[in-house]
Amino acid sequence: MSAPKRAARPGRVVKTRGSAAGGEGAEPSSSRRERLRDDHARLARAAARARRRAYAPYSRFPVGAAVLTTDGMIYTGCNVENASYGLSLCAERVAIHTAVAQGRRRVTALAVAGPAGATLMPCGACRQVMDEFGVQTVILASARGAPAIVSLSDLLPWPFTGISIRPRHASL
Ligand SMILES: [Zn+2]
């Protein structure tokens, strides 16, 4: 089955072929640049399209993201800023939360795309949210050359998990 050709936007659902098996800075040494498999290439393109819808009047740094769910769907997000800066949201979290709002809670891969020439690293908050919903592969799209691919376990080797907050004492 083929995906519609219309541009992705936050909340937009694009069906992909098959299903997944599965701040800017230096890339981790474990990242690799290689030809993307088909579904990841589509994910990177969806992230780049989503970037066009960024609401970034303060930073003027538009970012787009896209997530691939276990059933092969793609959901996108963009950064959404606010005059009260602390209320701003990263594109990665908008994409993940959009998937969750549509009933998809298992995400296998996430792609993020920033301005040309910038290879973006997801911030710590986004890495934590990625872990919550099962992201394994992070694709750092780049306008120059092949995207970098890194595992979330390399980006966040010691996540905070639900196990951490289970009650340990019945009396509490
Ligand atoms: Zn973030």
Name its key features.
22% helix; binds zinc ion; 19% strand; Cytidine Deaminase, domain 2
Structure at a glance:
Helices cover 22% and strands 19% of the residues.
The CATH class turns out to be Alpha Beta
Rg (CA only): 16 Å
Share in β-strands:
15-25%
Q: What's the overall geometry? A: globular
Ends distance? 53 Å
Spell out the CATH superfamily: Cytidine Deaminase, domain 2
Q: Whole-number average pLDDT?
A: 83
Helix content: 10-25%
- Please summarize the sheet with the most strands: 7 strands, mixed
DSSP helical segment count: 4
How many distinct domains?
A: 1
N-to-C order of helices and strands: EEHEEHEHEEH
Can you name the CATH architecture? 3-Layer(aba) Sandwich
Describe the structure.
By secondary structure, the chain is an alpha+beta fold. The chain has a single domain (13-162), classed as Cytidine Deaminase, domain 2 (3-Layer(aba) Sandwich), CATH 3.40.140. Helix content is 22%, strand content 19%. The chain is built from 4 helices and 7 strands, in the order ββαββαβαββα. The protein has helices at residues 38-51, 91-101, 124-132, 152-155; strands at residues 13-15, 32-33, 64-69, 73-78, 107-113, 137-140, 148-151. Strands 1-4-3-5-6-7-2 form a 7-stranded mixed sheet. Strand 5 (107-113), helix 3 and strand 6 form a beta-alpha-beta unit. The N and C termini lie far apart (53 Å). The relative contact order is 0.19. The model is unreliable at 1-24 (pLDDT under 50). Zinc ion binds next to helix 3. Residues 90, 92, 122-123, 125-126 line the site of zinc ion.
